[in-house]
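Why predict the complex rather than its parts? Because the way molecules touch one another can change local conformation, and only a joint prediction can capture that. The input here totals 683 residues.
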Amino acid sequence: MWARGLHRRFGAVAAVQGIDLAVRRGEIFGLVGPDGAGKTTIMRMLAGVLRPDAGEIRLEGVDVVADPERAKPLLSYMPQRFGLYEDLTVAENIYFYATLFAVPAPVRRARSAELLAAAGLLAFRRRLAGQLSGGMKQKLGLVCALIHTPLVLLLDEPTTGVDPVSRRDFWGILYGLRERGVTILLSTAYMDEAERCSRLALLHAGAIRHCDTPARLKAAMPGALLAVVTPDARAAHAALAGAPGLLGLLLMGDRVHVRVDDAARRAPELRALLAGQGIGAADIAPVEPAIEDVFVALLGPGSPP
Amino acid sequence: MNLRRLFAIAFKETLQVWRDPRSLSIALLMPLMQMVLLGYGVSLDIRRVPLCIYDQERSQTSRELVERFVASGWFIAVHHLADARAVRDAMDRGTCAGAVTIPVDFSRELASTGAAGVQTVFDATDANTTAIAIGYAQGVIALAAADFAARWAAAHGTRPPAAGRVDLQPRVWFNETLDSRNFIIPGVVAVILGLVGAQLTSLTVAREWERGTMEQLISTPVTALEVMTGKLIPYFAIGAFNSAFCLCVSVFWFQVPFRGGLGTLVLTTFLFTLVVMGIGYLVSVRIRSQLGASQVALILTMLPTSLLSGYTFPIDQMPAPIQAVTLLVHARYYVTILRAVFLKGSTVLDLAVPILALVLYAAAIVWIAARAFRKRLD
Ligand SMILES: Nc1ncnc2c1ncn2[C@@H]1O[C@H](COP(=O)(O)OP(=O)(O)OP(=O)(O)O)[C@@H](O)[C@H]1O
Ligand SMILES: [Mg+2]
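Output of the joint prediction:
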């Protein structure tokens, strides 16, 4: 699946401006970016439900812009907002989507049993979708998206609101699909999920700022990273603003990630600065960047183009 | 058109309708209520109008006149009163809708001149009913006057000097006879089916937008035609039930004579339902909120069907430009057809013109509606 030169405006807002991307078969491609970056708009255009102002999309050789209906049997799209029928039961929703994709009844029964078991929803087959918990709804959305065998799977923030255990199961399912050669494109707000993608596109203001594997993105991050662990990380975070050689600061729970130009030279300076402000017992050591650090470094203010 | 997908849409829509008992009961009860309101409003109230009788003379002739009022079936004599104040009180309390005062010299006057005056008073709070009741009273009196005059002529061998003094007012309402009900009820049925049908389907697409289910639906291979057909099926079932219900109430409750063929009725009702549901669906495709869609559908169907269909206001008495506009009102054809099928026993051949008009209308609406739904978010 690839797209070239995608543009889309909503009135004065240029939601997507000049996106190029290519996703190979068997790849899990991640879209990450702040709210309003244009992730949903891209997904909608790829799914053939929103027409781009300009640009070209090909999905398994089908021209999605010119002939979206030919692309639809090949793909599954799970919108960001829950899109199933709340007044239908779990089983009825599955039946509905299976039939729209012309899944034969025996296949439907086998697959739905398998997927519901994997999602932990077997016991809730007869429950109305509207009475499921948020995480369960999200999983049902995924079950419905996977009830036929798509060549391309488009998932817009599929795990938002899903508990960590279910998220792990969910990724198990995605890896299984990847083995079968399904092309997967998803957007996510979770950094641990971004890390699991084979490639990531960092999106900002409707444009892809960086696109590479998570490892190479980390390597491309300018500067070096130091973790400052103190009893009062919040105070340290405030105190470190404006330190010499500082490139970026990120508060991460009980620690502060400090991006500096030269780790060996700056570490003692930072320790002295914190001690001078009365924030002692600081443990400062170099760390491997997490994807959050990359994200902030590459998309935050003053980031490289 | 894939039949399995069509069935899936129809099945899903049916479940949704079924699981929304509030809307379903409104859909089924609305015709009943409207039938009662409109049907009774125009018909049964006007039979058995309660009258007070102030008979000052109490002669055989005056009693005969009272008897003629009652025998007409349009009036009942609820009170026989002894003075004018009592008449006034009875009217104020609402125990009677009208009063007939027969003067002391009624039979004497009649014997000498062949004619006599009678005073009738009606409570005009409900102007329509009153107008009709006055029409009935005039009818009774005119008949009585003619009979009395004939008797006088037979006795005297010459025409009574006062003959022809009974001059009837022109009738305000076009349905003063008992047939009014038979004429009005088929129109009521058409109006009700026209309103309710469009209301039902006006929600169906708007609901998908409002609840956020549209985005996923249009990402599937389902076609616009499958969505429309599948969605209309359950509403057609409700529409068929409502039609059968209203028509049965007309025949078995309001006792409108049914002289035509059942086949003609079913065919034309099917066509009309198609038009009405198509209009509702079209509105639903265009307006993405349920409330908005149902209000637009109400305005689009209410005004034309109630004012321009000929159901209360006869089309041939409208100004020419308005008459031309009524040609675009679908209900006009169905009102014509229903009246003819009920009262005249007209066949499909007799009704070829209005039926053809409905066919064209249905084809145009379905064609437009099928194309109006785009599988796009924008
Ligand atoms: N239908 C629409 N009408 C008007 N503006 C829109 C519409 N859809 C998106 N936008 C605008 O386009 C921009 C991109 O929105 P989009 O939903 O694609 O972002 P996103 O990356 O998915 O954000 P989030 O993480 O919050 O889901 C935003 O500024 C948004 O306000
Ligand atoms: Mg989004």
